[in-house]
Amino acid sequence: MKKVIGAILVGTFLFTAAACASDNSQSASQNQMPTAKPVKDTIDVFGQVKYKTSKSIYIDFPAVVASIDVFSGQVLKKGDSIITLDLKNAKSQIKAKENEIDLAVLELKNMKITSGLESSKARNNKAVLQKEIDRLYDEMGIKKTEIGEVNDEQLKKLQNELQSLNTQVEDNKNLIGIHSKRKENEIKKLEDELDEKKNEYDNALSLIAGKAMEPGTPVDEELVNKNRKIAELQGDYDTKKAALDNNSDSDIIISNNQIQAGTERSTSEIERKSSEISRLQGEYLAKKAELDNGTDPDIKLYQMQITKANDYMSYLIKEGYADDSPEYLEQKRIKEEAVIAIEKVKSVKSYEINKLLGAVADANKELDYLKKNLSSKDASLQLDKVKKAKQEELKLIKKSIDDAKYELEAIKKNRQKEIKQLEDQLETLKQSFSDYKVDKEKELKQISLSITNNELSIKSTMKDMDNAAANRKKELEQIVLNIAQKKVQLDNLELDLKSEIDRLKIETQEKKIELLIEDLGILKDKLKKNYINGDKVISEFDSGLVYSIECQTGDVLSSANRVATIIDSKNLHVEASVPEEFIKDVKIGAKVDIIPIANKAKTYSGKVEKIAGLAKQNNGDTSITVIIGIDNADGFIVPDYNVDVKIKK
To answer: pTM to 2 decimals?
Structure first.
């Protein structure tokens, strides 16, 4: 929104400048035609890159995550590995199912062979049965008993199968109940965590807005502490600014006191410096007089040595000593050394006099400086320095307040992002739980169908047993009437009964094989998905981008586990918010220039694809979301990139 307001202000400034230029031109030359005011031909707003297409990858077969081959945000090509799976369990199940099918097929072959042999044997026994007509009644009774036993055995087998299926239903229901309870607990825990985070966030915002809270009310401490810091900084800023405006700041008071004390001290120093100058001038004049008059004690001492040497040399000449005698030469040396010493003393004394003269000059300069420092202008400059330092301190505090406010907004955005992630996780968990229940309901329906078929088989067998009992009575009566005819009926009954039992067994075995093959096909189909290549989970997009990885190395996968989400990084669009005053100029199909904040040297072209039917408000500003397609996405821009958008009118 700041960028939009900035663009409006810049546009207003340019428009005003153009209007002023036009007015000046008219006043300069009334004969010229008035120029038209420039009209901006684009709408400049701020937008964010979003993705259109994504792929959630689910694993619905037994596997273990061997390794994660990518990281969140990684760019993928079609066929690149995302996750490596350990498929030992799935392969073991497939192998076991294949072995079970092979065994069932072998059993079916044996059934067919046995059925054929028994039928042939029954036909070969016709002649034997004809010779044993006397024992036919007993054998008929035995056969009927055997038929009842066969039916009883088949009924018992079906009842056992029915009991097994019912047990399987109960086991599945218990398993579903346990899994559902665990999933419900996970959902409840995630909902509680989401509610707690939302509650803390909302309470923190209410507290920041000034709403009273009961003691112990949970709040987002980081938000509250950051807002408290802003309030403390603002209070410190207001206090120091008021102190600066009212000249009640301690440093300003101290500075004023120091200026006043400095003025008094400078007056005292001027008096002291004037006394010092007088003393130095007196000392200078005294020493100069001693040097000029030859009354310096050191010079007088050496002059006495010279006088004494001259007197002694005169005495030696009078006594007849030559001027090159040792005694004469010694006095001459003493005289020469005294002369040299006098020159040295004069030199030293001159240096000291000049030094005193320089000290007098320096003292005069210091006196002038002290007198100048007594002016009110210098005092004001000192006070201005203190005030300027205080103003700089206020600027730093103001910057700290702005930084803290920026950090507060960043914390708010992070909390909103965390809440959105929790909401997405909760939705995913609920969807996974729903898919699980649908799969289990299908399994229970399949088992229920098997139970229904089994119950029908039991009823059919019991009916066969009742029919067999009725037929036995008729057959016994028929044997009495016509022994020869009964012999043929007995043969036919044996063949039909044996054929029917064998047929039922073969059909049951064939149905079992069909179900096994169907189960095997379902399991293999689960491994034939487009994103499964051997033991690798791969990318289906030419320019995929890892949006999330939702598993870890070592995770055991079974049914409807989402392990990753991949987005198509080339199939992107931009979502931009256009202020309501400009939306009338935005048309479907309008050309758009898209400039990423990450590299403003790049420009992408696009077109307006959709205009939202509803407006939204933010801080009192009303805007409408516009969806913009990107014509030449090259992989540089990725979802959530910020971009400048120029929509052509």
So the answer is: 0.35
